[in-house]
Amino acid sequence: MIRRLTALAAAFIIMTWAVTAAASGAAGAAEKAADKADCPACPKNTYRLAVVTKPGAAQTVLAEKFASLVSQASGGRTLIYVYHSGAKGDESQILELLRKGDLHLAVLTAGVFDSLAPETRVVEYPFLFHSHAQADKVLQGAPGQEVLASLRETGLKGMAFGENGFRHLTNNLRPVRQAADLKGLRVRVMESALQRELWQRLGAVSVPHPWPIEDLLSGGGADGQENPLWVIWLYRFDKLQKYLTLTGHVYSAHICAANLAWYEGLPPAEREMLERAMIEAAAYQRELNRRNESQGLSRLKEAGMRVVEHPDLASFKQKTKGLAESPLFAQPKLKELLELFRRELAKP
Asked: What is this structure's pTM?
C-alpha cells in the first residue's frame, strides 16, 4: 500500500494512507517514517480512521474535515490517519476491524450496520423522510441519538450522523416510471437485509454487493443500482447506466463511529474534543452535500442520462407500505423506535 501525506495547513499536518501515489513531494520524510509499522515517528496520539470512498466523496470529505478539526483543536498533538479508497476493505470489513479495535474510527453507510444493530434500519425506512429538514429534525434530535446510543451494545460509540443523501434509481435497460417497471430488473443493493427486502417488494431482483460496484455494472452483473445523485456523478455511472429515476426512496445517512473500548479509555478532555470535532465535521459535510446535489442532477442530464423526474411514487409506496409489519421490524424496540421517528416528524 502506498501512503499519501497531505499538508492541510502550515500549522499542522494530517497524514492520509491511500492507494494512490503521494500528492506532495514535501511529505517524503514522513512517508518514509510511515513505512515502519504504525508510524513510530508519529506522535503518540495518532488515531486510525477508515472510509471506503475515494477523495471528494462524502465519507472522505467528512473524515478529512474531522482530521483537520482535531489537529487544530489539539495544536497538532493529535493526528488522524484517514484510510480511503477501500484501503481497509469494503464497508463490512471496515466495520469488523473497527469492532476488533484494529481501527479507532470509521464513517460508514447506515445500511452496513443493519444486521449488527437493527435500530439503524429505522433510519433507512423507505419514504420516511421527504426533505433534508425532516432528516435533520429527527436524526439530530432525540430519536437519532437513541439510534447512536444503540451501538454501545455492539462495542461501538455512535458519534454523529453524516449524510449520503436521498437515493435514486439508475438502470441500463428501460425508463422506470412506476413500480411495475421494476419487474425482473436486477438492482444492486447494499449488503443490508432491509434493502434486499425493499427491492424484492418492489418487484426487482436484489443483487447484494459491496462497494465499489463499477465492475459489477460494467460486467452485466446487475442492470441497475440506487444511490444519491452526487455518487452517481462522482463515480460517473452515467457512463454505465442510461436511465435515472428520481425516486428518493430512502434517505441514506452515514454513521460516524468509534471503537467503544478505545474511546472510553481516553481522557475525558480528549473524548470531548473528538466528539465535538466529529459533530462539526458531520454538519460541514451535510451542508456541502446539499449544495452539490442540484449540480449533480444538471451534470448527469448534460452527460446524456435520460431522467424520469416525476415517477409515480404512489405505486412505489403502495408496494412498500407493509414493510413495518415484516419480520425485519418484529422486535418491539424497532416498532417503538419507528413510531418515535414518526411522532417527531408529525410535530409542527
From this structure: 0.89
Adjacent-strand bridge partners of 6: 14
Q: b/e per residue, 22-31, with b = 16+ CB within 10 A?
A: beeeebeebb
CATH of the domain at 334: 3.40.190.170
Identity of the residue numbered 243: Y
54 domain residue, yes or no: yes
Residue 17 confidence (pLDDT)? 38
In this prediction, residue 293 carries a pLDDT of: 87
- pLDDT of res. 90: 97
Our count of domains for the chain comes to: 2
Helix (H, G, I), strand (E, B) or coil at 292: helix
Domain, as residue range, for 324: 168-250+296-346
CA distances from 139 to 65, 145, 175, 347 (A): 20, 7, 33, 14
Residues lower than pLDDT 70 in the chain: 1-42
Task: Give the integer Cα–Cα distance in Å for 72 and 51.
Answer: 21
